[in-house]
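Example record

Each entry pairs one chain with its bound ligand, 2-acetamido-2-deoxy-beta-D-glucopyranose.
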Amino acid sequence: MKTYVALALVAPVLVSAQQPMWGQCGGLGWTGGTSCVAGAACSTLNPYYAQCLSAVGQQTSTTTLRTTTRSTTAQTTPSTTPATTTAATTTPRTTTTTSSGPVGTGLDNLIKAKGKKYVGFCADPGTLSNSQNANILRTESGQLTPENSMKWESISPNSQGSYNWGNADQLVAFAETNGKILRGHTFVWHQQIPNWVKNINNKATLTSAIQTHIAAVMGRYKGKIYAWDVANEVFEDNGSRRDSVFSRVFGDWTFLDVAFNAARAADPNAKLCLNDYNLDYSSSKLTNFVDLVKTLKARGVPVDCVGSQSHLVVGNGAIPSFKTTLDSLATTNTEVQITELDIRTSASPSSSQISQQVTDYRNVVSACMKTSACAGITVWGVSDKDSWVPSTFSGQGYALIWDNNFNKKACYQGFVDGINS
Ligand SMILES: *[C@@H]1O[C@H](CO)[C@@H](O)[C@H](O)[C@H]1NC(C)=O
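C-alpha cells for the complex follow.
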C-alpha cells in the first residue's frame, strides 16, 4: 500500500491562496496554494509534501542544524528487553525522558502492562509541530515510525553520498527526549526512491548503492532504532515478486540478501524486518511472503521480524479472522509486528460504520494480544486530519483513532477493549 500523501495527483498548478498553519503548501502534484499565513513558513518535508510550519525554530530539510551525538548512557537494548509486566512502569530510555506528560494512562502503557512491547504511531516533524499531536504521542505512544523522513528519496534525493538528515534527526530527537523506541522505515522499496537509484542498471552498482545507503543511515542512528523495515512491499498483489529496479537488476531475490546483510553489519542490535501490505487474509501473497522469509532464513539471511502493514477497511471479512493471518506470519519464527494500522471507511461514516470500526479495532488488537509472536502495534497516524487515506482513496477516511480535532473517537475504546481481551 502506498504510504504517503498525494502521490496520485497530477502536475502542479500554482494558485495564490495563503495556506493555514499546518496546511499543505507544496509537493509533487500539489495544486493548491504555496504561500503560508503570517508566522508560518512552507517547509518541504519530502518531494511529496510541503507543509506550513511555524516560522520560529524551523530548519530546512537540506541543512543539518543539529549534530547527532550518540548517547552512551540512555540506550537500553530493546531487542533484549523481555516484554514483561514490569514494562508498564518504565520507559525504554528512562534517563533521557525530560517531557512533561503523564505516564501510565495511554495505550502504550496499557499494552505493556499486558506483556507487549509497544503501541506506536507514525510521525514526522510536520505532525510533531502540532502540539495536540505531540501531546497525544507523549502520553499514548511508546514507539514512533517516520512516515516519510527516512525514505530513500527523502534522505538522499540527489546523488549517492549527499544526505538530508534534518527531518529524520528531528524525529529521532523527539523520540529520545520523550523515551520512545523507533522503527526505521525503509530501505529497499520500489516507491519514493530517488531517480539516481531507479536508473541504476547493473548489479555491482546497485549492490554498492544499497550497501552504502544502509551503512550511512543505520550508522547515523545506530543504537537508536529498535527495528528497521529493511525491505518493503516486495510482492505484487498476486503474490509474485514485485517488478522494481531491485528485482529487475538482480533477476531474483538476492537483493534482499544484500540489504539484510548490510543492515546486520550496520547495527547488529536492530531487528531487521520484511514489511508488506495485504497480508491480512489467506492469499498467495501471504503464503509466498511466509515462504520467502523461511527461505531467506534457511540460507542465513538475517530476518528478525515481519511487518504486516494492516491498512484495513471497516467491515472487511478478514478482520474477524485476523489472528489466523498473524499465526501464519508467526510460522516464520520471527517477531510479528503490526506496522501501519488504520481501518478506513466512508469519510462521512454512518453510525453503523462507526460502531463496526469499534469492533474492528478491538478484533485486530485482540488478535495481536492472543498471538505471542506479535510484539506491538503501530497506528499510521494520530488524527484523521493527517491520515494518508483521504488523499489516496477518494471518499474514504475516518481511519484513525482521533478525529480531525484530536478528540478520541469511539474506536479508542475498541483498542482498549482489544488490549484487555
Ligand atoms: C502478477 O501481477 C503483476 C503485476 O500486475 C503482473 O505483471 C504479473 O504478470 C502477475 N503474475 C501472474 C502470475 O499473474
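Residues 211 and 289 are 23 Å apart (CA to CA).
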